[in-house]
# Entry
Amino acid sequence: MLEIKNLHAKVAEEGTEILHGIDLTVNAGEVHAIMGPNGSGKSTLSYILSGREGYEVTEGSVTYKGQDLLQLEAYERAAAGVFLAFQYPIEIPGVATMQFLKVALNSQRKYRGEDELSTPDLMRLVREKSTSLGIKPEMLKRPVNVGFSGGEKKRAEVLQMAVLEPSLCILDETDSGLDIDALRVVAEGVNALRSPDRAMIVITHYQRLLDYIVPDKVHVLSKGRIVNSGGKELALELEKDGYAAYQDDAA
Amino acid sequence: MNRTPAEQTWDEFDTLPSGFADIRKTAADNFKSSGLPTRRVEEFKWTDLRRLIDQPYPPIIGKLHGDIDALIAVSPFAGIAKNRLVFINGLFDQARSKMPDDSNVTITTLSGKPDMDFSLKADDPLDNLNIAYASDGALIRISGKVKDPIELVYISSTKEPATVTTRNIIELDEGAEATILETCTGGKSAYVSNNATEIRLAKGARLDRVRLLDDGPLGIQLSNLIADLGENSKLADFTFIIGGRTVRNQGFATFTGQHAAVNISGAYMLKGKQHADTTLVIDHAVPSCESRELFKCVMDDTSRGVFQAKVIVARDAQKSDGQQTANALLLSDTAEFDAKPELEIYADDVLCGHGATSGDLDNNHLFYLMSRGIPESRARAMLIAAFASSSFEEISNEAVREKFNQIADGWLERQMEV
# Structure
């Protein structure tokens, strides 16, 4: 589904190279965890995959479902099935959550040449998906993420994911700011979306999240490179030994 | 100072509309001595009307021109108000109007020789000009709680450049309540629309007034609100400015009884070379009153928005509470917003404040929407509408808010025909 080859990227304005040649292949149905210390390039990788401006790819390629992902604009990537669950979901005053979901879903459907969903159908869909995530109807009446607690914001991200049904989900530090109960609810929501035709990249600093979302593969990102890959047991090693070994290696 | 062609034309127009002869004469004389204000007058420093009104606009009354019904259809309030008073080129149009059927509402028109007195704001050149030439207007007296909104539509549609002048009085008796919805619009030719409204609220009265100013591409709108608020009364006034070449939107509110409240708010959505100016003076002449002003202003291209608000608190007007806020969203490097909040406080126990901000769309907001599959143009439109619509919260009528949301949402695609 996703093939990243020798990806080098820098911050467009400052010119600092952050990714120094990333290779990663993610197949449909797989869940990959990317772990690494702060500043290793985890979030940059997620932004480059989702098409945020401000980064420049200087070398390498990203192929998604056989097409050059980097050629697509952010909204086209989303319509093609790439979804980024933000570490810090953005509050957008004045845009009602339900309206936002409707415009997002129908923009994607229109782009893919599918029929748009009517408002009652959409409301039914959203209500159904929000119940299992413990999202109250009042939250949907509020503007996007405005006044939501940290846990509510993360749940709202998972709700969007459930409604938009992407093929490739990138979860950026989804566990940050969550207590254990909220983490469990969010993880259950994510696990419910695991399917043979969907892939997930779970970016996290801590192993804790991976107790709930069990990955097929774990990669260690340090200073812009993947320095080790393995099975889920690698995450447990990291939890025990920390990132020090990798940081010394890279230095 | 030399008279401009516009001033000369007004000066020479010696057949003032009939009725109110004395006050009209005084007003016309006042205007003859003051003329149009220039930028050297502090209140007009960003809106130099002497320069902006750059050709003669002879006063006209009536004389239908163009597709009037298409212009009336500009009003977003048709489905909300069950009745409507239409004024075309400064003359009441009975055939296109539907009077409210409510014993608590008494309406006469200025052309119908009413038994009402104007109060002239003699130091305001626009009010002098208005009283001198006002050819018609609605004189509305409300005596009880009136549920159905009353709609007023003002159309300026002239063949040649002309001045269209209307003046209204809205009086609410003790404890009365009403909602007035107004639309000002016009045709494609150049015109000056001078529309003034006096609002007089008796003890405990409550008036909600919402206006859409959607004038023609060459239209100049001179709008005046002169409000007198009695004890415990409440005025909520909202103006959504979207059309017109130049809009000067003035408001003067004076508290004459304690524990009264005024909210004068609005939104601008400007593009092309549009210029909109709101200038307010809130006079806390008595203690314990509350004033609120909130304006959300969107400017694109080379348009310019101006917001000036002065809150005056008299020496013994303790416990006055005045807050004013103006926020601008500038969508181009050549758009401009000028704000001047002013507090003139002579009392010592007051709560007054002001704030003004200006900025561009937030790229984080834009990326968030796009990352969910929303194309950039649509995402921008949503965020622009969201900015403007945050001011609509000041409007208590939900159906009106919904209509305004729709207008704001479609604004980016709206073409300015100049």
Q: What stands out?
A: The interface with chain B takes residues 50-53, 73-75, 77-79, 83-84, 86, 89-90, 92-95, 100, 103-105, 107-108, 111, 143-144, 160, 164 of chain A (CB under 8 Å). The radius of gyration of chain A is 18 Å.
